[in-house]
Design goal:
The complex is a heterotrimer of chains A (732), B (308) and C (179). Chain A has 732 residues and is of the alpha/beta class. Chain A is 30% helix and 16% strand. With 179 residues, chain C is α+β, with helices and mostly antiparallel strands. Chain C has a single domain, classed as Alpha-Beta Plaits (2-Layer Sandwich), CATH 3.30.70. The chains are: A alpha/beta (732), B mainly alpha (308), C alpha+beta (179). Bound molecules: ligand MGD (2 copies), iron/sulfur cluster (5 copies) and molybdenum atom (MO).
């Protein structure tokens, strides 16, 4: 086929179908001929990615109806046409040989991973009966849902219709909750996901832990690279020489757990040297004098012995930040549940940013906007629960503004304030995500029903009474994504290929379950396409157009004060609260102060953990494409320290925590890239679920070793960087 | 300190290349052995010794043919795309030692057949035509000289080729030495001398072969010495490569099997033989042959472990 | 005639391996093999550490030993972009080229022939960038004609500090790493 006829073919073919180019004749196929044979049919279907929660717009390609590859959708402002490695490797989720294939009901004891394969009807009938029993005996509030990600929308709907308010995700109390609370207390607004950070335009970017480049949230990494490319001054604070640190002008190898001291000292320098944005603080600030007095003692000299960062370096970096303000951004972090004073540390970071005058400013925090898409009209009202949320009795954590996973877990164990008897778990591996697995298992053992909806036989699925196999994201519709961002957009997830076995999409599961529960009136639509079409039509958008393009782009919007967009602070004072009366009212520090955290004793190391760019948590280790990129995690140990233990890279060792938990064996990475008082591993390995054949027993699990955690008094987050380990030498 | 990590996962080349297994060392050894036997055959033809009643010249070409074919089989087994074997002979790639080798081997076969005709082994005596033809060729001095020269020349080319195949690889510092060709040629000649010594019946041929072999073994020792000296005084990569034999992972096998048991010990035995202090036995030549095999294996394996 | 090459900005690269995954899906690189990979080089002692991260692949050398040693001509310099290519139907799988490449850029495809980076010429011919280049989230890779002084790659090589890999091997590699 010539170029001309190819173009003609393009024109006559419908939708997104393109013909393969025939390879030039002759007996030998040139070595570089495309990996598509003559006559093969290539189809492009836009959708959005779900290998993590960033939801990048993507275009999936099929070749003769089989999934071939996934690329970024250039129309999508999140991906800008480029996915991260996990998104590119999403193909492997469809082909994963370890996938769940049919509904399963537990055969023997919980956790033994012995199953009877059943039909969907049997599985859902079983669940519905148990749920009705729970409702009758304990009330509908005694059924809780753990759900992470967009796919949980419809199950949440079903559970609310059933009458329970108890719905939680680990992305709050184990992830970004403290940050949102800290920023809310300060600016009256949260950072949200995708973060409203204007990294791309930053001239000075400070990263405290945030290991962009390993943490592969796509837009952030792209903008980080842009900033580096533009010559931005990067300051990285991390006990480990992260990838980001290798791009930094200043690398501050801080002693773990002492960041608060550094942030306070930075603020001290900015204030005492009058480097902060006085006009901005004057105009928008509240309680600055009290704040100033409160931080007066936190000099760099004071911080030095705590943080091990030299006073001069603290001064230099503070001045560096000020030099580029307001295009100077101190990244708020995302996974900030480290030491239990995380909301206060996040608040300190918010205040540091406020001193730089960057909230609402270019190169700082922009003001995001989403596309207006009405919710589905026509759902009946949910029944009003008789009892309030179970997770935070007496509002012990006064500023918790989402439900706490560990709070539900506590209630399940203790029966207080009221019993929780059923868990439905959607797309979250609670054993990997919550600290202290023993407590999670204890809670599970007191349940009447544990349902897990997953795509692979994960650890949590192993403990379930009923396991429901979901279609992976490339095989299903989900709700729209219209998350507020720097450019408004609507993105659609739609099926690219069919599920290989008896897997079903979440909307179908949620709807069928509702029917079995006698709640069909909550599903006036029969098919999700009706639901999506109705929502889009109500907003004046075309479903067909969205199916074709994957993205509807909104108009350009003003983002900064510079664009004339005045910031609004939804705080009690209507200003940026340097001093928080709300916190004071609850007997909490109105201005952040330093709390000392225990440090490891001799022979002990603090266990740190983080991300590897090619894996998402513990969910990609059986994805054949991504597993190949990194089959197991490594234990990072300072080279000198490793030498003292006679360990070299590649040796296997084990870790033992203070509660006597011994890890699976893990390969040593003896490296100059980490301090001597801590060790580091990538989260998500050391799988113990038998069905995860590819990942089983490979590497060690930080989650297993995280038996200790410190509750954040402000909002109930769980600080997990508080576990100390010793090195157990491995014979083999 | 340099910390180097790579995420590459091509199992044949990580962490060191191991693309060639037993087949290539065997092929190289056999190539060297046949090269040596051709030189010996040629020598016997050119000097007229082939006319001796018990001269090995009667069996050498046939043995060479069989051994060489076994070597070619090994080479064939090593190919990953076997059905495309014929592609070797649709082109001549002037820069490729392997292409040269393929064509040299193609010439070696007729040379060996011609040599065989001069003193056909007894099984061939069954065919009248061959006996007649052979008689005519053997009687023609010019033909004998031609065939003898051809065998020597092709033998030397074959011997050098087996070394050059590796030494052309600039990527593997251990192979990347001008001395590897001479080393393999000498080792091939020595191995052949030893091997032929084992099967020789003619006492004077035996003596000659032992003397020749002793000389070759001494030369081989010298080349090995120069080879290592050359390596250790070249680039850092070469020094690292030589290190494989000087304390590294191939040290003991190299010094024990190649140098000790393969050269020095048999050399001592054979020197004693020459002085008629001990009788001719197969022990020394067997060791030389085994040493030749060991040399090919170790050079091929260690070379793949060496890296720029 | 164009002479294709790549310029990779190590100051932007984060070593995420997206380029590796993309190559695998685009080119059906079989499980257990890769045409590109990431090398990380760490120098110094904690905390005074420098690190260079590089996305590496066949360098499409100007002076390619893999081509010189190939007995069949399967490995050859393709006219289009003067790239080094392998014709599977001519390759006998002798592995000489694997041994000859100082960068270990090649492998034997389970189907029997020598395989390596093609610079995605099938895409380039259609006006697209190679898969690895087009996917890279940090946009640290650039592909183009080194013989065109106005191409982006040429300009980057002229204007920024850069190095190639193992220049001492004399292969004249055509992938340049900006530092
Ligand atoms: N590839 C990939 N990317 C992801 C994810 C994934 O699973 N895979 N998950 C996404 C999600 S949900 C989240 S929340 C984010 C998390 O990503 P981040 O918010 O960047 O995660 P953190 O856990 O804060 O960062 C871990 C880093 O903090 C350092 N660190 C540990 N303790 C301390 C300390 O006491 N002080 C300082 N200054 N640094 C410390 C560690 O050395 C490590 O470099 O990643 C997102 N991106
Ligand atoms: N020890 C430790 N704990 C942590 C963290 C850590 O770094 N270390 N990180 C914390 C952070 S930042 C977060 S955000 C949370 C994340 O916690 P989780 O969201 O629970 O993350 P995963 O552990 O990967 O569990 C995701 C589960 O969803 C399943 N899944 C994947 N895709 C689908 C799908 O399409 N449908 C369905 N039904 N299931 C699917 C996966 O198979 C897996 O079992 O964990 C927190 N907890
Ligand atoms: S960041 Fe990566 S994994 Fe997450 S949605 Fe985007 S492409 Fe997918
Ligand atoms: S995709 Fe880009 S940033 Fe990621 S490793 Fe490859 S070259 Fe580096
Ligand atoms: S990198 Fe290796 S395979 Fe590529 S052209 Fe150079 S020598 Fe040949
Ligand atoms: S393996 Fe194939 S491409 Fe490589 S040298 Fe041999 S014939 Fe040539
Ligand atoms: S240019 Fe193409 S073949 Fe080469 S590494 Fe990149 S994606 Fe792979
Ligand atoms: Mo998270």
């Amino acid at each position: 086929m010539t170029a001309v006829s190819r173009r003609r073919f393009l024109k006559i073919s419908t939708g997104a179908t393109v013909g393969a180019v025939a390879v030039a004749g002759g007996s030998l196929r040139p070595a570089f001929s495309r990996p598509v044979e003559d006559g093969e049919v290539i189809r492009k279907i836009p959708t959005y990615c779900d290998v993590c929660f960033w939801k990048c717009g993507a275009i999936a390609y099929t070749r003769n109806g089989k999934l071939w590859k996934v690329e970024g959708n250039p129309a999508d402002p999140l991906s800008r046409g480029r996915l991260c490695p996990r998104g590119t490797g999403g193909v492997g989720a469809h082909y994963d040989p370890d996938r769940l294939r049919t509904p399963l009901i537990r055969k023997n004891n919980r956790g033994e991973e012995e199953w009877v394969a059943v039909t969907w009807d049997e599985a859902l009938t079983y669940i519905a009966e148990k749920m009705q029993a729970i409702k009758q005996q304990y009330g509908p509030e005694s059924m809780a849902l753990f759900s992470h990600g967009v796919g949980g929308t419809f199950l949440k709907h079903t559970v609310k219709a059933y009458g329970s308010p108890n719905i939680a995700a680990p992305s709050y109390a184990q992830c970004r909750g403290p940050r949102e609370v800290g920023f809310n207390l300060t600016f009256g607004d949260a950072v949200y996901s995708p973060e409203r950070t204007d990294i791309r335009n930053s001239k000075c970017l400070t990263l405290i832990g945030s290991h962009l480049g390993e943490n592969m949230h796509n837009t952030q990494v792209q903008e980080f690279a842009d900033a580096v490319g533009n010559g931005a001054s990067v300051i990285v604070v991390d006990p480990r020489f992260s990838v980001a640190a290798s791009k930094a002008k200043y690398y501050l190898p801080i002693k773990p757990g002492t960041d608060m001291a550094l942030i306070l000292a930075w603020m001290n320098v900015l204030v005492s040297e009058e480097l902060y944005d006085k006009d901005y603080v004057e105009k928008y600030g509240f309680g600055f004098d009290a704040f100033k007095a409160s931080i007066a003692g936190y000099t760099p000299e004071w911080a030095y012995p705590i943080t091990t960062i030299a006073p001069q370096v603290i001064r230099d970096t503070a001045r560096e930040m000020a030099r580029y303000a307001p295009a100077s951004l101190v990244h708020p972090g995302r996974h900030v549940t480290w030491y239990g004073d995380d909301a206060q540390r996040s608040r300190a970071i918010a205040l540091l940013n406020a001193l730089l005058g960057n909230w609402g400013r270019k190169g700082g925090f922009y003001t995001p906007t989403g596309m207006p898409v009405p919710g589905y009209d026509g759902y009946p009202a949910y029944p009003k629960p008789e009892r309030e949320h179970v997770d935070n009795p007496g509002h012990a954590y006064p500023f918790a503004d989402e439900e706490l996973t560990t709070g539900i877990r506590n209630a399940t164990i203790t029966g207080e304030p009221y019993p929780i008897k059923g868990w439905m778990v959607y797309a979250t591996n609670l054993l990997n995500a919550l600290p202290n697995q023993e407590e999670t298992i204890k809670a599970i053992q007191s349940l009447d029903l544990l349902v897990v909806v997953d795509v692979i036989p994960s650890e949590i699925a192993g403990w379930a009474d009923v396991v429901l196999p979901e279609s992976v994201y490339l095989e299903r519709y989900d709700d729209l994504n219209a998350a507020p961002f720097r450019e408004p957009f609507i993105a659609l997830r739609q099926p690219v290929v069919e599920s290989p076995d008896d897997q079903k999409p979440n909307w179908w599961i949620a709807r069928e379950l509702a029917k079995k529960l006698g709640l069909e009136r909550y599903y006036p639509w029969t098919n999700i396409e009706e639901y999506l079409e109705a929502r889009l039509a109500a907003g004046g958008y075309s479903f067909d157009g969205l199916k074709r393009d994957g993205i509807i782009n909104g108009p350009k919007i003003p983002l900064y004060i510079e664009d004339g967009l005045e910031p609004v602070f939804y705080t009690p004072s209507g200003k940026i609260e340097f001093y928080s009366t709300q916190l004071a009212e609850h007997g909490l520090d109105p201005v952040p102060t330093f709390t000392e955290h225990p440090q490891p004793g001799p022979g002990q190391f603090r266990l740190l953990f983080g991300r590897a760019p090619m894996h998402s948590f513990g969910r990609t280790q059986t994805n054949p494409l991504l597993a190949e990129m990194m089959e197991e995690n490594e234990l990072w140990i300072n080279k000198n320290v490793a030498g003292r233990y006679g360990l070299k890279s590649g040796d296997y060792t084990r870790l033992k925590n203070e509660d006597g938990v011994v890890s699976n064996r893990i390969r040593v990475k003896a490296t100059e890239r980490i301090r001597g008082d801590c060790v580091y591993m990538v989260h998500g390995f050391g799988h113990t679920a038998k069905g995860m054949r590819r990942a089983f027993g490979k590497g060690a699990s930080d989650a297993e070793l995280a038996t200790k955690y410190v509750m954040d008094p402000v909002m109930g987050g769980t600080g997990m960087n508080v576990n100390f380990v010793t090195i157990e030498l491995e014979g083999a | 300190m340099l910390e180097l990590t790579t995420t590459r996962h091509n199992h044949l080349i990580d962490p060191g290349v191991h693309v060639w297994g037993w087949e290539i060392p065997i092929y190289l050894f056999v190539g060297g052995l046949v090269a040596g036997m051709m030189v010996i055959t040629g020598y016997l033809l050119l000097t007229g010794r082939f006319r001796g009643r018990e001269s090995v010249a009667r069996s050498l070409p046939l043995i060479s043919l069989i051994v060489l074919s076994a070597g070619m089989l090994a080479l064939f087994l090593d190919l990953e795309h076997k059905l495309y074997f014929w592609r070797l002979y649709t082109t001549f790639e002037i820069t490729s030692p392997m292409s040269w080798g393929a064509w040299i081997l193609l010439l070696v076969y007729p040379a060996l057949v011609a040599a065989m005709l001069i003193r056909p082994p007894s099984i061939l005596g069954l065919w009248d035509g061959i006996v007649k033809l052979s008689g005519r060729v053997a009687a023609d001095d010019r033909s004998v000289r031609w065939i003898g020269t051809l065998n020597v020349v092709l033998g030397v080319m074959l011997g050098i080729y087996t070394g050059i195949l590796l030494s052309a690889m600039g990527s593997r510092p251990l192979w990347n030495s001008a001395l590897l060709g001479p080393l393999f040629l000498t080792s091939g000649l020595s191995g052949a001398a030893a091997f032929v010594h084992m099967i020789a019946r003619d006492r004077s041929e035996s003596d000659l072969l032992v003397r020749a072999d002793n000389g070759l073994l001494v030369v081989e020792l010298v080349i090995i010495g120069l080879f290592l000296i050359g390596m250790t005084s070249a680039s850092e990569a070469h020094i690292r490569a030589a290190g494989l034999f000087l304390g590294g992972s191939y040290t003991s096998v190299f010094w024990v099997f190649v140098v000790g048991a393969g050269i020095i010990f048999p050399l001592v035995l054979q020197l004693l033989m020459v002085r008629h202090k001990i009788r001719h036995t197969v022990v020394a030549p067997l060791l030389v042959v085994a040493g030749g095999i060991a040399l090919r294996f170790i050079i091929v394996y260690a070379g793949q472990a060496s890296h720029m | 005639m164009a002479r294709f090459g790549m310029v990779i900005d190590t100051t932007r690269c984060v070593g995420c391996m997206d380029c590796v995954v993309a190559c695998k899906t685009e080119n059906d690189v079989p499980e257990g093999f890769c045409r590109d990979w990431i090398t990380t080089e760490v120098k110094g002692e904690f905390p005074e550490v420098q690190m260079e991260i590089r996305s590496e692949r066949c360098n499409h050398c100007d002076n390619p030993p893999c081509v010189y040693c190939c007995p069949t001509g399967a490995s050859h310099v393709e006219e289009f972009g003067q790239t080094v290519q392998v014709t599977p139907e001519v390759c006998i799988g002798c592995k000489a080229c694997l041994a000859a490449c100082p960068y270990d850029a090649r492998f034997i495809n389970p189907k029997g022939y020598a395989d390596k980076c093609t610079f995605c010429l099938h895409r380039v011919k259609e006006g697209l960038e190679p898969a690895c280049v087009s996917v890279c989230p940090t946009q640290c890779m650039h592909f183009g004609d080194l013989d065109d002084p106005n191409s982006e790659v040429s300009r980057l090589i002229k204007s920024r500090d850069n190095h190639t890999l193992l220049p001492e091997a004399g292969t004249n590699p055509r992938i340049f790493f900006l530092t």
